[in-house]
Write a structure and sequence with these properties.
It is built from 14 helices and 14 strands. α8 (201-208) crosses α13 (298-312), α9 (216-233) packs across α12 and α12 (283-293) crosses α13 (298-312). The model has no long low-confidence stretch (mean pLDDT 95). It has 330 residues and is α/β, with parallel strands linked by helices. Helix content is 42%, strand content 18%.
Length: 330
């Protein structure tokens, strides 16, 4: 099996790099300065156990690979706002022996949020979900930092919308052999909805430019809105206690000399001045469900709007005072 990691940023770079390090056939897909660095000097992967440079093939898109292989597994690790473009590009890629990727290959959504799998299923016949717990950082071209040990992350896998099969079990084994916990479950979306609740704090961290501890009341209100919405909609989600019981102390953030754990995925998007963030698929998902089911979501509405403004204006992570946020909520 060859793994094509579409979006070799923090998550994709860490997953692809560690898969390659353990002997798997991997191709990284990137763009711009990051792609140039991967081609010129390789992937510099920094972990609590050290730094290494991995020479992993890197491309901008499917055309550089020619016909895809019948044993390719596409791992989609772009931000949710970039999913449609990636699906259009890769779904039509030709596969050796005839046909196109959308009909012949499987795709794994290794992304935050819960909409990607549904969107992907419109294009690809076979879709898997991955619930990603992988604290990683990518703010410099060619460099990815994975912050936890002894395991590098917890990647819960399953077929969308439910079930499992031999393909996802083989992928799970390869991930487990590459320093991840990668359980295969029949209810992967329940895990992804649980992760969605945690990711609601990404926007809060970005606008405060700090941890959510300085605004614990706002974070609690943000998550409470999410839980109320999911409960009203009848959507199942795993709890933090359930995750903690499985994770235990096998995946904890470790100090790395000369490297700091500076922020989550939304913080990093603002820091890189990418021009977009995934808030519409995190806080915006809760706002959407709230409107559909008659549940007010003022905190998530505000965070979605604010962080999108920052992204459009190319503003870096803000140091907005929690008191100012409270005032905006009235």
């Amino acid at each position: 099996m060859r793994y094509i990691i579409i979006g070799a940023g923090a998550v994709g770079g860490a997953v692809g790099g560690l898969l390659a390090r353990s002997g798997n056939d991997v191709v990284l897909v990137a763009r711009g300065a990051h792609l140039a660095a991967l081609r010129e000097t390789g992937l510099r992967l920094i972990t609590p156990t050290g730094t290494e440079t991995l020479q992993v093939p890197a491309v901008a898109g499917p055309a550089e690979l020619g016909e895809l292989r019948a044993d390719d597994l596409l791992v989609l690790a772009v931000k949710s706002q970039d999913t449609l473009a990636a699906l259009a590009q890769w779904g039509n890629a030709p596969v050796a022996g005839g046909g196109i990727a959308a009909d012949r290959l499987a795709l794994v959504c290794a992304q935050n949020g819960v909409e990607n799998e549904r969107v992907a299923q419109r294009v690809f016949r076979t879709v898997y979900g991955m619930c990603v717990w992988l604290p990683a950082t990518h703010v410099e071209p060619g460099i990815v930092v994975s912050h936890t040990a002894p395991l590098s992350g917890m990647l819960t896998l399953g077929r969308y919308p439910h079930g499992s099969d031999s393909t996802v079990r083989e992928f799970g084994k390869h991930l487990s052999d590459s320093n991840f916990d990668a359980p295969v479950v029949d209810d992967v979306m329940r895990w992804k909805y649980g992760k969605l609740l945690n990711n609601l704090g990404n926007a809060l961290m970005a606008v405060l430019d700090t941890t959510t501890e300085s605004a614990a009341d706002l974070w609690q209100a943000c998550r409470a809105e999410g839980e109320a919405v999911l409960d009203k909609a009848g959507i199942a989600y795993n709890t933090e206690d359930e995750r903690a019981a499985i994770q235990g102390d096998r995946m904890t953030v470790q100090p790395i000399e000369g490297v700091s754990r500076i922020g989550g995925s939304t913080w990093q998007s603002l820091a890189r001045e990418t021009g977009s963030v995934e808030a519409d698929y995190l806080n915006g998902e809760i706002a959407l469900l709230g409107r559909l089911h008659g549940v007010p979501t003022p905190v998530n509405d505000l965070l979605q709007r604010l962080v999108n403004e920052y992204a459009r204006e190319r503003r870096r992570p803000s140091d907005l005072a929690p008191s100012r946020l409270r005032a905006m909520l009235g």
